[in-house]
Design a protein that fits this description.
Blueprint lengths: L5 H20 L5 H17 L7 H32 L1 H4 L4 H17 L2 H11 L5 H8 L3 H24 L9
């Protein structure tokens, strides 16, 4: 008698194909596994407790989730850009060209931070949360949150001057 749960055998047969499909659908290859997992759990909850689930349902769910995630990322990017433009940091930049270059440089440098540090920095600066609120939000200790923030600021202080000093390479056609 087979005691393995139905979902494990189903996923063993279809999981790798779903992951390949999800990688094609996702903007970020790291999101593919999350898309497959989320789609699989949603479909399995709806249809799978009693037996076989048609793979097409899960493929469709992966595709729809990928579209929803992409839209969410687009909305977040627009929201972050608007928030940044209204933040006190942006008023320090003199003219629009320099302002745009500095914004791009700052965002590029922040993007280089490890995800854990970037998350805390974003919640602290753009989310305007206290360390205590961040600790509760991320389910971390207050010391961990504070140290991640401190490390992020140290890296920004180190990286940002170098980024601003490097001349941007511009090509022009004669």
């Amino acid at each position: 008698m087979n005691t393995e749960p139905i979902w494990k055998s189903w996923f063993a047969r279809h999981g790798s194909k779903l992951l390949l499909f999800a990688r094609q659908q996702a903007r970020n290859p790291h999101d593919a596994e999350d898309l497959v997992q989320e789609a699989f759990v949603r479909i399995w909850r709806l249809y799978g407790h009693t037996g076989e689930v048609a793979p097409g349902l899960v493929y469709r769910a992966v595709r729809r989730l990928a579209i929803d995630w992409a839209r969410s990322i687009d909305r977040r990017t627009i929201r972050e850009q608007k928030t940044f433009e209204l933040s006190p940091l942006s008023s320090a930049f003199e003219d629009n060209l320099e302002k745009n270059e500095r914004q791009e440089t700052l965002l590029r440098v922040v993007d280089r931070l490890p995800d854990e540090q970037k998350e805390v920095l974003t919640l602290k600066i753009w989310g305007e949360l206290t360390f205590d609120e961040i600790a509760r939000t991320l389910d971390l200790s207050l010391n961990t949150v504070a140290s991640r923030y401190r490390y992020a600021l140290q890296k920004l202080r180190e990286w940002l001057p170098r980024e601003l000093e490097e001349p941007s390479i511009k090509t022009s056609r004669s």
